[in-house]
Design a protein that fits this description.
The chain is α/β, with parallel strands linked by helices and 338 residues long. Helix content is 27%, strand content 25%.
Amino acid sequence: MRAYQVITADGIDAIEQINTEIPTPKDDEILVKMKACSLNYRDILITMGGYVRNDIRPIVPLSDGAGEVVKVGKNVNSFQLGDRVIGNFFQSWESGKINDDGLNSALGGSIDGVLSDYFILKANCSIKIPGYLSYAEAATLPCAATTAWHALVSVGDIKANDTILLLGTGGVSIFGLQLAKAKGATTIITSSNDEKLARAKALGADHVINYNTHPNWEEKVLEITGGEGVDNVLEVGGAGTFEKSSACVKPNGTVSVIGILTGLESPSMSLMTIFNLLRVQGIYVGSTEMLKHLTYTMEANQMHPQIDKTFLFSQAKEAYQWMAQAKHFGKVVIENDT
């Protein structure tokens, strides 16, 4: 079979296509023929090395893949041949709180991922794809969508009268927008691109802020909320946005720390964290149980992921390059071309 591997820590050029044997599933595993997979910002970082718990090379990249079950281990009763499936980002986190074993089971980082013609999944950390979703759509859910669910629902306990702030228009933020609207919350989203903001409006965003036009965008958020602030912010920026995000949150609100798009430096200490009694919560994707409940909500609301652009398997490096330019709205997908 064909597969890609991250060979060195030299960026996208570190990715090479190889030929290797089709793996054999163990007793508790399933073998899946890849139909589609999707990229996350994390996948760019892995090509550059130094990603915590994900610094193993060579490794097959990507955590998010959807496909068809073609072989099952002898102890697997929950799947049969022909089932359409996705695997959880963490292959050893079913439910509850994660432990060290779970943290070291991340697809495409700690263990081989899904950017191959066939891939192995643990049956107990995989789920069937809702019938209304395509393979390409389903392939966007394990990382970005589950992360948004974890932040908004599992930790944030989102309610219909909440106000949610979303930074940018990448995968997590767009899923966060869709989920927040499905839960009846008010949403504010930022971007430097007016066209992307118009698309976010079309998806239901209540308020949009161009942070180039409004560099002190935290003031605009407070203006929109009548000085109260938001209940939860999906903080995907990191050091460059943490202080502003903290200034946007109402007393006893939550800063869901998810990403490092503005750099790897430690976030600045914000006095608002103390004076407004904020909860600063690290979010690292989620459990299989979270992924399941996410798909129930999506199906109930007939929610479709936003796919920005699709590439063929043979164009995987081009997909990485498109992702690295940060021009996308939603998700970047790779589909199998065999």
